[in-house]
Automatic annotation (TrEMBL):
<keyword id="KW-0328">Glycosyltransferase</keyword>
<dbReference type="GO" id="GO:0044206">
    <property type="term" value="P:UMP salvage"/>
</dbReference>
<dbReference type="InterPro" id="IPR005765">
    <property type="entry name" value="UPRT"/>
</dbReference>
<dbReference type="InterPro" id="IPR050054">
    <property type="entry name" value="UPRTase/APRTase"/>
</dbReference>
<comment type="similarity">
    <text>Belongs to the UPRTase family.</text>
</comment>
<dbReference type="InterPro" id="IPR000836">
    <property type="entry name" value="PRTase_dom"/>
</dbReference>
<dbReference type="InterPro" id="IPR029057">
    <property type="entry name" value="PRTase-like"/>
</dbReference>
<dbReference type="GO" id="GO:0005737">
    <property type="term" value="C:cytoplasm"/>
</dbReference>
<keyword id="KW-0808">Transferase</keyword>
<dbReference type="GO" id="GO:0004845">
    <property type="term" value="F:uracil phosphoribosyltransferase activity"/>
</dbReference>
<dbReference type="GO" id="GO:0006223">
    <property type="term" value="P:uracil salvage"/>
</dbReference>
<dbReference type="Pfam" id="PF14681">
    <property type="entry name" value="UPRTase"/>
</dbReference>
<keyword id="KW-0021">Allosteric enzyme</keyword>
<protein>
    <recommendedName>
        <fullName>uracil phosphoribosyltransferase</fullName>
        <ecNumber>2.4.2.9</ecNumber>
    </recommendedName>
</protein>
<keyword id="KW-0460">Magnesium</keyword>
<keyword id="KW-0342">GTP-binding</keyword>
<feature type="domain" description="Phosphoribosyltransferase">
    <location>
        <begin position="13"/>
        <end position="216"/>
    </location>
</feature>
């Protein structure tokens, strides 16, 4: 289950024991890249489960081996936008839960001097974005919030109706940045940490999620 944090209805931080357990293993500096990737995958599955809770459904008639019955199916299209490269680690786990979702990649990196996001890959078309009922942006770390703000702005400019963020760790500063600019965007976190340090890293955090996934520390 998720609890609303910081008294804001658009922020949801997990209080589930399984997520807390996996997050602790993820933080450990001795966790090797293969296990780190597996944990990111597993946490993405759990976050996607909660993130889709409010998605709108419609009736669907199906034939069981016994009789006809009316079930439920998603009413609108769902899209996933992993922010390259770290967000790729969350993609397969999210697709495991939502295999029918469209996937659009967005390339952003953080300038280490200015801490501002720089976009280097974006093939999304406005007509595709407009068709999606809900778009999930995937990024393991919500640090300064700059990359997520840039991603959300890109989607909104292309006509996105509803955007949600799935992230593993967040900082209060990053959450505030996203919420101030996009108060309608829901944020789902596995954990909310204490603060950012002087170079924009989450404290206590888990280091650089991209480097730890791909062994480039």
């Amino acid at each position: 289950f998720f609890v609303c944090a910081m008294s804001n209805s658009s922020l949801f931080v997990s209080d589930h024991p399984l997520i807390a357990h996996k997050l602790t293993k993820l933080r450990n500096e001795n966790t090797k890249p293969k296990q780190f990737r597996d944990l990111v995958h597993e946490l993405a599955v759990l976050l996607a489960y909660e993130g889709t809770r409010e998605c709108e459904l419609t009736d669907l008639s199906v034939q069981t081996p016994v009789t006809q019955c009316t079930g439920k199916t998603f009413k609108n299209k769902i899209a996933l936008v992993p922010i390259l490269r770290a967000g790729l680690g969350m993609l397969e786990g999210t697709l495991q839960v939502i295999p029918f979702a469209s996937v659009w990649h967005l390339g952003l990196y953080r300038n280490e001097e200015t801490l501002e996001p720089v976009q280097y890959y974006n093939k999304m078309k406005p007509e595709q974005v407009c068709e999606a009922g809900t778009i999930f942006v995937l990024d393991p770390m919500l640090a300064t919030g700059g990359s997520l703000v840039a991603a959300i702005k890109t989607l909104k400019d292309k006509g996105a109706k509803k955007v949600k963020v799935l992230a593993i760790l967040g900082s209060p500063e990053g959450v505030k940045n996203v919420q101030e600019q996009f108060p309608d965007v829901e944020i789902y976190l596995a954990g909310l940490d204490e603060k950012l340090n002087e170079v924009g890293y989450i404290v206590p955090g888990l280091g650089d999620a991209g480097d730890r996934q791909y062994g480039t520390v």
